[in-house]
Amino acid sequence: MRKIALSTTFGYVLLLFFAIPSIVMAQNQAGKTVEFELKDSDRVVFLGNSLFESDKNGYLELALTTRWPDKKVTFRNLGWEGDNVFGQARSHFTNPPTAYETLMQQITAAKPTIIFIAYGGVEAQDGAAGLDKFKDGLNKLLDKTDELGAKAILLSPIPVLSGIPVDILESRNKDLQLYAKAIADIAKARDKQFIDLYNPVTDFQKQAKISEDGIHLNEVGYYLMATALENGLGLVSQPQVINIQVVKSGLEAATPAKIVPSEAQQMKFTIAESYLPLPLLAAELPKIEQKRTVKIGGLKKGFYTLIADNVPVITASEKSWGAGIEIKQGGVFDQTKQIQHLINKKNDLFFQQYRPWNETYITGFRAYEQGRHKEGLADLEYIMVWLENQIYLNSAPKSIVYQIVTVK
User: Fold this and answer.
1) Which ranges of 9-155 would DSSP assign to H, the alpha helix?
2) Res 325: pLDDT
3) Phi, psi of 222 (to 5 degrees)
4) SS3 breakdown of the chain: % helix, strand, coil, rounded to 5?
5) Cα-flanking dihedrals φ and ψ of residue 29, to 5°?
6) Biggest CA pair distance of the chain
7) H-run or E-run covering 67
8) Pairing between strand 43-48 and 33-36?
9) 77, 53 in Cβ contact below 8 A?
10) Labelling 380: which of 11, 144, 166, 209 has CA 20 to 30 A away?
11) CA-based nearest residue to 48, from 152, 192, 162
12) Whole-model pTM?
């Protein structure tokens, strides 16, 4: 991820970012039934290795943000590529503090109320011989999160998908499964929730290309992993079918669709949305189960365009509309993409704040040279708060007017 040395003033950065475009039940796989919800003022932290750091499109945060549009929640991504439960990847810039002390400081500074922990992928390279050390480290880490009063949710590592010889791949994945089981056992012993990502990701690779190198997920992979996280938390999305019927008086519709009364003859309707859907990558997900289908019956022979707030979405024949067409773009999807854009801008700023380019010189043992720039890092908090307010104010689904128009 890109890092930027900070010497600009707060005012300059503020001007830059004003240009930005506009309680469920979950079955814990470790055996415990738990409730998961986000509340106002919750602070959610993602802690782990590249599994979190590489989510540059913010799908995990987006999935949780849109589920509770009426809750003002703060998210911080503390993922660090190559990291383990001892924070060793964080040791490159200064000593003291030690890498582990740095990890503890970063967790404490984030003030989590909920913390998703994803370790084990790096540690599994040590095989069975390193398992006890890993379990000790994970337990020690959980002692810290308990001390902070944060609810910890443990995630399994994901499999290696390709890129290495088959025999090594099989051995590597057996070790990853061994560590995943250890994480599940610790979750059960400590009354924590555990979410299996290993098996869902294994299945996802049969549906789409989810990685470029066989180790790190690509954008499609993170979209699908976000759905796996939702399912693991009990946030299951049911496929939605919107049924519209053309009649002499105009249109008839079944919930969640509602006809615009005064303009029924113009074939206009709205759709009641409880939360924004994740933006779909239509071209990349041909085998994914349809989530949102619009069926329009009673159309005369011809071609028709579905328009959302005066913007064309898709054109098809009356026969195709009668059978049902999956909608993956326009309308609420455009709104979700704007929220995703704001999330990514905020996360870029946070990355610059807690991992500046010249860490050793700004916050480390050579801060006597450039420590004056630390004030600039603190100023970024104002921009992040502004972005978080924009996310909160725009996360509730807007009322969008859809119209069916004949193609002439």
Assistant:
1) 10-17, 50-53, 59-67, 99-110, 131-147
2) 92
3) -70, -35
4) 45, 20, 40
5) -70, -10
6) 79
7) helix 59-67
8) unpaired
9) yes
10) 144
11) 152
12) 0.87
